[in-house]
Design brief:
Layout (H helix, E strand, L loop, with lengths): L2 H37 L1 E5 L14 E5 L2 H4 L7 E4 L8 E7 L4 E5 L2 E4 L2 E2 L18 E2 L4 E5 L9 H4 L2 E2 L3 E10 L5 E2 L2
Antiparallel strand pairs: 1-2, 2-11, 3-4, 3-11, 4-9, 5-6, 5-8, 6-7, 9-10, 11-12
Length: 183
């Protein structure tokens, strides 16, 4: 056997190991990605102007799907909803929790008789067909877009079941100039 044949065998073995390594790692990475996307963190896109003032159409967000497995949603959170109440996924601000009494007077929102301070709101808030005062049913939340005059939300659709709350918007990632925490 000449010197050239001796070096070809280890190179062939190394290439086979490399290929087998990739054949194993690609499915593992794919499954890990799917698990993270479905149960922990996901990217979502703002597809309407209902949150304008805070979020703009075309922005991409990171959604934390784990937060509400360990704690309850809080008033003021920007949440992603995906349930039978509406045909599309929605991004809205949580205004009312189960048992809260929602009222709207003079273009402002009151929760349990207290004026809700909302520096993020664009436009004036009207009941838009909702009979107020309104009590949020148990097991549900009341949501509204920050662009109050251009939002389809709980005022028209009714409350959303807590089971329809998919996660919390936590980070703006695109466009890069808007990168940062979502408030």
């Amino acid at each position: 056997m000449d010197k050239h044949d001796q070096t070809a065998a280890p190179a062939k073995k190394s290439l086979t190991r490399e290929i087998l390594g990739w054949v194993w790692i690609i499915p593992v990475a794919f499954v890990a990605n799917m698990l993270i996307q479905n149960y922990a963190f996901a990217q979502t896109e703002v597809r309407s102007i209902s949150m304008q003032g805070t979020l703009y159409e075309g922005q991409r967000l990171i959604e934390n799907k784990l937060t509400y497995r360990f704690s309850d949603p809080g008033r003021g959170d920007i949440i992603i909803l995906d349930g039978p109440e509406y045909k599309d996924r929605l991004i809205k601000r949580l205004i009312g929790l189960p048992g809260d009494i929602i009222d709207m007077k003079d273009g402002r929102v009151y929760v349990n008789g207290e004026l809700l301070e909302e520096p993020y709101v664009k436009g004036t808030t009207y009941a838009a067909g909702l009979s107020v005062p309104y009590t949020v049913p148990e097991g549900h939340v009341f949501v509204m877009g920050d662009n109050r005059e251009r939002s389809t939300d709980s005022r028209q659709l009714g409350p959303f079941a807590l089971t329809s709350v998919e996660g919390k918007a936590v980070l703006r990632v695109w466009p890069l100039k808007d990168f940062g925490q979502v408030d």
